[in-house]
Design a protein that fits this description.
Length: 98
Amino acid sequence: PAWPAHERPWDFWRFSSESFDALLNRHTGFRILKRAEGMPAAILPLVRENTTKHMLRHPCNLCVGVLAEKVGSSDARLAWNLNAADVVAEGYPGRPGA
């Protein structure tokens, strides 16, 4: 989440506390128990261009966390019928020599 949040609560790529509502909800079979944003920071861009020149003015957090409980099955319409090997080269976490 080191890029300042924007268009909240619809900025799902920064994983703000609001984004967990879209990821961990009754449709995905979860209930959020606790969430937090922390480690306030400021971004000091090394270049000065239109997209970064005002970054220092926007607060951001270096970490975000969530504790969720799996309470049911996910909605069948959310199925992603792929194996991990179909989208990543190795398993997570990668094991040296495996």
